[in-house]
Give the backbone structure.
Amino acid sequence: MECTTVREQMLEALYGEAGEDTLRRVDEHLAVCAACRDEMAAFRRLRVDLKSYTLPALTPGRPRWLRPAWNPGLPVAAALLLAVGGASLWRVSVLERRLLEQDARHAQALAELQAGLRAQARPAAAAPAEAALVLRLEELVTKSEERQDQRLAASLRDLSERSEAQRRYDLARMSAGLSYLDGRTGQRAARTAELMGYVLQAAERK
Amino acid sequence: MPSPTDDALVEAFQAGELAAFDLLVLRWQRRILGTIYRILGSEEEARDLCQEAFLKAFRGLKDFKGEARFSSWLYQIALNLCRDRMRRRRGRSFVSLDAIGEDQGSPKAYSRDAGPLELAEQGSLRGLVQGALATLPEEQREVIVLKEYEDLTFLEIALTLQVPLSTVKTRLYRGLVNLRGQLERQGVKGAAAVPAVHA
């Protein structure tokens, strides 16, 4: 069998995805081809080296429903959670307020423009062309207002979605950290209890 | 109590149970973070893009049809973000192999026996592997990371990357050959080839 033909099958064998027939064909080829045999051995050594590329320290948490009832770290963590959630809500409310203020400014500018146009408008009988123009302008202004309203509503929806997603992600990260704290605190408590046991035993022996 | 499957959590989310998404995040964030970190090589960027990936997933999950597995879809989001980031920094190498060589002194031979000196050198091997991975073309690096570190099958990788199976194997083969060459040039000889070096 040609080396290039068996290459894919060698990879399947290397990664444990080869069936019996494939393994047999690969073994038969490696028995007669030194180059492929050396390459296969080199890949096996390489895979061992690749395993050294470990991740930086991360804290995988236990699922929330496995958390114990109480531990001293919870009130602190709860305060942090409230702060994070509160911060997210605060950011939303600040941005919402800014958008609403901008909308109010737009509405005021449009109202002033309309008032100015009406003040300049002549009676329809005296200047029908100008009156038609004013009506057309008012129509354009109204449509512009509607578009502004739609854009504002879309922006607020988008902002709300992003904030909710951010809040959930932050809460999930916080929960993972809490679970890690639970584990560490439990271990310390267990060690403390063990030490207390030794001390009591020593005192009794005296 | 058995954990709910990804499909069950997705269904619950689409039915309005937003807390189901929290469980998906808890389940997958470490792996997605690890994948992005190994592709980009930067912990800070990995955290940023991991967060961005889950934000995108949150916004897109209501329209997720289930034609692919949830994990494949999530990996696709993460890989697309990585590609966008790499496009932006194209032409700039974030790891200099010369710098790694200077940090480590002259290239040394490594063995598998874990004596104290070798244990200290494992940190160096990690750096060399990280550097070698960074020199790979993106498509080879993606396949290597998904196969070696995420332990996806060839078929899962093909579905995630939306390429044929043979393409996955070709990229993997070329990636392994390139990595072997890079590491050998840095003095990493592999097990049973060179005796341990003791100071």
About this structure: The helical segments of chain A are 3-14, 20-32, 34-50, 73-120, 128-205. Chain A touches chain B through 38 residues (CB under 8 Å).
